[in-house]
Specification:
It comes from Thermoflavifilum aggregans. This is Putative secreted protein (Por secretion system target). By secondary structure, this protein is mainly beta. It has 2 domains: 93 residues, Immunoglobulins (Immunoglobulin-like, Sandwich); 89 residues, Sandwich (Immunoglobulin-like), CATH 2.60.40. Helices cover 0% and strands 62% of the residues. The two termini are 31 Å apart.
Length: 211
């Protein structure tokens, strides 16, 4: 069995002004090194049927991206829910649950963090924000300099630039509104021999990107 690292958050819910208390009473995240999967577990009490639980992930504990969703079964009893993240990119990763009631109001748990060892250069965690800026992350096992290139399916280069990388999570943002819908690739090459990585994505429109 691989080493299991667990970080638990209990009763840490950010409520604000709410019509009723949130129903999540416990939330935990653990990383299984053998399976390379993050297991999430949360517990509810008195959750109405149809309550939505949105699973969110972040690399900086501030900007969270939805990676899944499940619907509550309802009932007065305590209920347990589980979700696996099979693609944790590496480094320090934060998770939280956004509980959405029937009116659309959201209640957020406090974030639970795990640390996945960084063994190679990786790129991922792509999302678009409200200003239509596209964000992505490069996870590096060493401090270095890297070349980032954006190409399309025909091999045309749309962007190419150098960046300084620190060891761990490196977050970047770029404007891709000039690109037509289609398939594109971010390629990153470590200039100090740290390897390379590639991220394939599809631009549907200026607000929708898919991996």
């Amino acid at each position: 069995m691989g080493k299991l690292m667990m970080y638990v958050v209990w009763m840490g819910l950010s409520m604000g002004v709410a019509l009723r208390p949130p129903t999540v009473i416990g939330f935990s995240a653990d990383y299984n090194a053998t399976e390379e999967v993050v297991h999430l577990h949360w517990i509810t009490r008195n959750a109405p049927a149809g309550e939505k639980f949105i699973i969110q992930r972040s690399l900086d504990s501030t900007h969270f991206v939805a990676i899944g969703q499940t619907t509550g079964v309802g009932g007065q009893a305590v209920q347990h829910y589980y979700f696996d993240d099979p693609k944790p990119i590496g480094g320090k990763i934060y998770y939280r649950i956004a509980e959405q009631d029937a009116s659309g109001r959201l209640y957020y748990t406090s974030a639970a963090a795990i640390n996945k060892p960084i063994t190679s250069l990786m790129i991922g965690n792509l999302y678009v924000d409200s200003t239509r800026q596209v964000h992505f992350a490069i996870i590096s096992p060493q401090a270095s300099i890297a070349n980032i290139t954006l190409v399309d399916l025909n091999g045309k280069i749309w962007q190419s630039y150098l960046v300084n990388l620190k060891q761990g999570n490196n977050l970047f943002a770029t404007d891709l509104k000039h690109l037509s819908p289609g398939i594109y690739f971010f390629q990153v090459n470590d200039k100090k021999g740290g390897g390379s990585a590639m991220l394939r994505f599809a631009k549907v429109n200026d607000t929708t990107y898919r991996l």
